[in-house]
Amino acid sequence: MRILFLGTSAAQPTASRGLSCTCIERNGEIIMFDAGECAQTAYTRAGLGWNKRMRIFITHLHGDHCIGILGLLQTMSMQRRTEPLEIFGPAGIEEFVTANIRMLGFAPTFPITIGTVSPGAVIGYGGDGRGGGRRRSDYEILACRASHTITAFSYVLRERNRPGRFSEENAAKLGIPRGRLWGRLQEGREVVVDGKTFRPEQVLGEERPGKVIGISGDTMPSAELEEFFVGCDYLIFDATFLDGEQQRAAETRHSTASQAALLAKSAGAKNLILTHFSARYRDDAGHLAEARRIHPCVTAAADRMEIQVA
Amino acid sequence: MRILFLGTSAAQPTASRGLSCTCIERNGEIIMFDAGECAQTAYTRAGLGWNKRMRIFITHLHGDHCIGILGLLQTMSMQRRTEPLEIFGPAGIEEFVTANIRMLGFAPTFPITIGTVSPGAVIGYGGDGRGGGRRRSDYEILACRASHTITAFSYVLRERNRPGRFSEENAAKLGIPRGRLWGRLQEGREVVVDGKTFRPEQVLGEERPGKVIGISGDTMPSAELEEFFVGCDYLIFDATFLDGEQQRAAETRHSTASQAALLAKSAGAKNLILTHFSARYRDDAGHLAEARRIHPCVTAAADRMEIQVA
Q1: Of the residues A178, A202, A226, the one at which a domain ends
Q2: N or C: which end of chain A has fewer CB within 10 A?
Q3: Quick one: pLDDT band at residue B136, thresholds 50, 70, 90?
């Protein structure tokens, strides 16, 4: 799994940063969070491919987070995409997409499903999520109400824990014949050999935890988000401002780098990635300095940056 | 007056070309033709300023020619623009702009007027244009039906001819006293000195012709456009394809470089500027070669290119 930063600027693009767009590539699938204007340009440059399995999650319906959907849909159609596309976002997302498809008069070459997000599971592991779940998934996407000027959501991608490593040695010792039965045990099911029942834990090591990635979108810090992001391996958080603009951050319902770091620390997030930088700052040095006073592991996102998640 | 090319790619952006957007800067006013996605990025880079007098003319409502309006409006508002903005385009332009302002929930900080274009004068010299003309203008904008897959317009910007140079020598010889009366003659009005009437042509040289700039937008060549573009000093024309793709050009209702050159030649356009290059071509060498076989003065537009119009 890798995280690709396609746009890391707040509100308006700068010479080096495009508008909000973050992709997770995972088992050949693209999971995109926000699609600000020019997302298609950054997406093309990243060479991610136009016919991949793909889901887009919009945090909120401000233009700098969602206008890019339109160009993506148009270019996907030009590229003759056939793979279905799922788009999720706050109430209004369906109107925004369908009204623009109508007004701009283009015909998508692929099926589009649009889901309205509410807090909780948007994509569930086993088809039990409220918004999606039409196929069994090995990750879930959870939504939590963010604290912004309009309805906005933060998201968590949580991989399903993987079963422990299979011990061929133990299986052989127990007299379970190699083949189909080993596969069943690996899948977590019991097997019976000569009338004797074997449980998966007799041959499997400890369960390997899936990775957890949090994406704040535009938000002030809140107790709800602190809880929501508990245990994130990577937390990508709004760091629009520096401490000197704390007042402005509160007025516009964004966060400072320090606030992002405090929340990440309280939530026990292992890695904090700052993003959504105001165009007023020339570089990210101030953000890094202020956040690193609080959290031990901070990175500043940059356009075209990639993080390989082990 | 100068022409700035902010986006010269067809349908989808490439590494070096953004989507359609051409600006004319003239006496402190920006006259923009089309605003494809990322227009605001190119506009920012060009340093044209957010509070200038400005009119935007959209050729047609395909996303790659108009999506950029939304980000422009949002960023203008962030920049606290106060100057009114006029937007013109085919029927549907008003719904596209107003529906998106509503759906994206932002409040423009400046008045926006949206006019639906029909063939003829969109902006008249003297307030007599059908679509605009609320203030006296020293240029006019004319629209002509283009030949594309949806309703599309080509535009011509025609500067008002400037009066000839004032001859102080002749005025003195005729005994017209320096001052207010000279000014009136320069403005083209008669004056009376000691009961004797003097006409402007007695002191003014030959009228100096204004410049004429044509913008085709997306179109096939047509007899109507050939007539419309007669006498252009600069004709900026759809050159999506090379001769080898003439069939494809006809199907998608675009032009080849040769077709652009033939039309420009027939219309007596002094300079032809090719634009709207399909992403399939690596460079513009083929377009230039094919067009230069037909027209003596051809340039290939490139993003960030500027042309100073004397």
Answers
A1: A202
A2: C
A3: low
Reduce the DSSP state of residue B148 to 3 states and report it.
coil
Closest chain A C-alpha to B41 CA, distance in angstroms: 6
Q: Does A120 touch chain B (CB under 8 A)?
A: no
User: What is residue A106's predicted lDDT score, i.e. its pLDDT?
Assistant: 87
Read off the pLDDT of each residue in A199-211 and give the average, rounded to a whole number: 92
pLDDT at B132 over 80: no
Model-wide pTM > 0.95: no
Active-site residue flag, B64: yes
Quick: pLDDT tens for B41-83: 999 999 999 999 999 999 999 999 999 999 999 999 999 999 9
What would you measure as the largest C-alpha separation in chain A, in angstroms? 73
Are residues B48 and B130 located together in one domain of the fold?
yes
Q: Helix, strand or coil for residue B34?
A: coil
Please name the residue of chain B whose CA is at the shortest distance from the CA of residue A95.
B103
The distance of A254 to chain B (nearest Cα, Å) reads 15
Q: Mark which of A202, A222, A256 sits at the end of a domain.
A: A202
**How deeply is A157 buried, as exposed, middle or buried, from its count of CB atoms within 10 A (0-12, 13-18, 19+)?**
buried
Residue A135 Rama label (left phi>0; alpha psi -120 to 50; beta): beta
Q: Among all residues of chain B, which has the CA nearest to that of A36? A: B71
> Nearest CA to A277 among A251, A249, A235?
A249
**Residue A232 in tokens:** 């994130």
Work out the pLDDT band at A125, boundaries 50, 70, 90: confident
State mean pLDDT over B177-198: 91
Same-domain check for residues B150 and B242: yes
Residues of A in contact with B81 (CB under 8 A): none
Same-domain check for residues A136 and A244: yes
Question: Are B19 and B84 found together in one domain?
Answer: yes
Is there a single domain that holds both residue B129 and residue B188? no
Give residue-wise pLDDT tens across range A152-188. Answer: 999 999 999 888 899 999 999 999 999 999 999 988 8
Range of the domain at A185: 168-202
The number of domains in chain A is 2
Q: Does B310 touch chain A (CB under 8 A)?
A: no
- Asked whether residue A238 falls in the same domain as residue A286, the answer is yes
How far does A121 lie from chain B, in Å, by closest CA? 25
Phi, psi for A291 (deg, rounded to 5): -75, -35
Nearest-by-CA chain A residue for B40: A13
In this structure, are A152 and A248 located in the same domain? yes
Chain B nearest CA to A149, separation (Å)? 10
Residues A264 and A178 in one domain: no
Look up the CATH number of the domain holding residue B225.
3.60.15.10
Catalytic residues of A, by residue number, are 64
The pLDDT of residue A135 is 53
Instruction: Place A131 in a pLDDT band, splitting at 50, 70 and 90.
Output: very low
Which residues of A, range 14-43, sit inside 8 Å of B by Cβ? 14-15, 18-19, 37-38, 40-41
Interchain CB contact of B97 with A (< 8 Å): no
